C-alpha cells in the first residue's frame, strides 16, 4: 500500500471516529457548562428529555443508515430512489405515532422542544447513510462544531440572565442549524416526488437493522430511565456524566475493527478468536487510561462526588465488548443478526433485573454494577454460542 493510500485510510478512519464520537463529546462538554456553572438539576431535566428523544429517534430511524448503506453498495444506480423512498416512509413513522404520542405525554413547552429535536434528528439521521457512502465525514464534523459553538456562544452571551427555558431554546436552535446545513449540502439528493411512494416492503427489509439499533440503544439507556424514575434529577445528572463517558470508552472496538473490516469478514473462527485476544489486551489499556481521565474530570472539572467502586465496575463494564466485538461481525457475516439481537436482549433483562435489586440500596454504584454484570452476561452468551451451538460459517463469504 502506497504512502498516499495509507494517509487517505488514516484520514478516513480519524474523521469517521470523530463523526461517530462528536455528538457524545459535544454532549459531554455541554454537560460540563450546565453542571459546573448553573445547576445539576437542569442537566438532569435535559437528560430526561434527551432520553425520550433517543428512544423515539431510534424508532423513527428504522435501521435507515445500515440498510441504505448496504443498498447503495448493491444497487448504486438506484441510490437516489432508495434514499427518497426511505425518507418518505419514515416521515410517517415520525408523525404516527411518535410526535402524536409525545404530545399526550409531555407538557406543552417541553413537547415543542422535543418534537423539534426529533424532527431535526430525523433529517440529519436520514443523511448519515449518504455521509458514509460519500465519505463526507468532514462535513458532519464541521456541522457538529458549528452547533456546539452556537450553544457555547449563547450561554456566554446570556450568562448572567440565563434560564432553563433559554437553555432548551439554545439546544433547539442548534438542532435546527445542524439540520439546515445537511439540507443545503445534500439538496441534490432530495426528490419530493418519490416521498409518497410508500413501501411496506422497505420497512420489512430494514426491520432487522432497526431491531439491532433499537435493542442496542435500550441496552445502553435503560439504566438512565430507571435512575430517572428512582432518583433525584441531580443524581441523574451525575450518573449521566459518568455513564456517557463509559459509553465512549466502550465504542473503542468499533473504531479498532473498522479499518480491518474487509479482512475480518474473511476470517475463520480461529482468527476471530486471535483478534479478540488482541483487542482484549488493547482494550485493557484503553479502559484504564479512559477511566483515569474520567476520574480526573469528575474531580477537577465537574467537581462531582464519586467513589472508587464506580471505576472498578466501570472497568468491568468496558472490557467485555473488546472481546466479543469481532464475534459480532462474524455473526453479521453469516447473516445471523438475530443472535446479536438476542445478546442485546440478554443485556437489557440482566441490567434491569440487577438495577431493580440494587438501585434503592446502592444508588449509582448499583446502576454501574448492573451495566457491568449485563456486559459480562452478554460476553458469556457469545462465548457459549461460539463454543457449543454455532456451526462454522463459510470463510469464503464476503461482504457486498
Structural description of this entry:
By secondary structure, the chain is mostly helical. It has two domains: 15-198, no CATH class; 228-389, no CATH class. The protein is 84% helix and 0% strand. It is built from 16 helices and no strands. The two termini are 22 Å apart. The relative contact order is 0.11. The model is unreliable at 395-400 (pLDDT under 50).
Topology:
Elements (H helix, E strand, L loop, with lengths): L2 H35 L2 H22 L2 H11 L4 H27 L2 H19 L1 H7 L2 H21 L6 H22 L14 H31 L2 H18 L1 H6 L3 H4 L4 H33 L6 H26 L3 H26 L1 H26 L11
Helix pairs in contact: 1-2, 1-7, 1-10, 2-4, 2-5, 2-9, 2-10, 3-4, 3-6, 3-9, 4-5, 5-8, 7-8, 9-10, 9-15, 10-13, 10-14, 13-14, 14-16, 15-16
Short structural summary:
By secondary structure, the chain is mainly alpha-helical.
Amino acid at each position: 500500500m502506497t504512502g498516499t493510500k495509507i494517509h487517505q485510510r488514516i484520514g478516513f478512519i480519524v474523521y469517521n471516529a470523530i463523526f461517530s464520537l462528536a455528538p457524545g463529546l459535544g454532549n459531554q462538554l455541554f454537560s460540563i457548562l450546565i453542571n459546573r456553572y448553573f445547576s445539576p438539576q437542569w442537566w438532569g431535566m435535559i437528560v430526561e428529555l434527551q432520553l425520550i428523544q433517543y428512544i423515539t429517534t431510534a424508532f423513527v430511524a428504522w435501521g435507515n443508515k445500515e440498510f441504505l448503506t448496504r443498498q447503495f453498495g448493491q444497487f448504486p444506480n438506484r441510490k437516489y430512489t432508495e434514499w427518497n423512498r426511505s425518507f418518505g416512509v419514515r416521515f410517517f413513522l415520525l408523525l404516527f405515532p411518535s410526535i402524536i404520542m409525545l404530545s399526550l405525554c409531555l407538557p406543552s413547552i417541553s413537547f415543542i422542544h422535543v418534537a423539534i429535536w426529533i424532527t431535526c434528528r430525523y433529517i440529519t439521521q436520514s443523511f448519515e447513510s449518504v455521509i458514509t457512502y460519500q465519505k463526507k465525514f468532514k462535513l458532519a464534523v464541521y456541522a457538529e462544531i458549528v452547533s456546539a459553538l452556537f450553544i457555547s456562544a449563547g450561554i456566554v452571551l446570556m450568562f448572567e440572565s440565563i434560564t432553563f427555558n433559554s437553555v432548551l431554546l439554545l439546544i433547539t436552535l442548534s438542532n435546527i442549524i445542524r439540520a439546515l446545513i445537511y439540507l443545503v449540502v445534500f439538496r441534490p439528493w432530495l426528490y419530493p416526488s418519490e416521498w409518497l411512494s410508500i413501501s411496506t416492503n422497505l420497512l420489512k427489509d430494514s426491520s432487522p437493522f432497526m431491531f439491532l439499533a433499537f435493542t442496542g440503544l435500550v441496552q445502553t439507556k435503560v439504566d438512565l430511565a430507571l435512575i430517572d424514575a428512582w432518583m433525584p434529577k441531580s443524581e441523574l445528572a451525575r450518573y449521566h456524566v459518568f455513564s456517557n463517558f463509559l459509553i465512549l470508552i466502550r465504542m473503542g472496538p468499533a473504531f479498532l475493527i473498522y479499518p480491518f473490516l474487509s479482512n475480518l469478514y474473511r476470517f475463520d473462527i480461529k482468527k476471530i478468536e486471535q483478534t479478540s485476544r488482541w483487542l482484549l489486551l488493547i482494550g485493557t489499556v484503553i479502559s484504564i487510561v479512559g477511566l483515569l481521565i474520567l476520574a480526573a474530570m469528575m474531580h477537577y472539572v465537574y467537581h462531582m462526588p464519586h467513589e472508587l467502586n464506580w471505576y472498578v465496575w466501570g472497568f468491568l463494564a468496558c472490557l467485555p465488548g473488546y472481546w466479543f466485538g469481532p464475534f459480532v461481525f462474524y455473526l453479521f457475516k453469516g447473516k445471523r443478526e438475530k443472535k446479536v439481537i438476542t445478546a442485546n436482549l440478554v443485556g437489557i433483562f440482566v441490567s434491569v433485573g440487577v438495577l431493580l435489586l440494587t438501585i434503592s440500596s446502592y444508588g449509582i454504584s448499583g446502576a454501574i454494577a448492573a451495566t457491568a454484570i449485563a456486559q459480562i452476561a452478554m460476553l458469556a452468551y457469545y462465548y457459549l454460542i461460539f463454543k457449543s451451538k454455532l456451526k462454522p460459517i463459510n470463510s469464503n463469504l464476503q461482504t457486498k
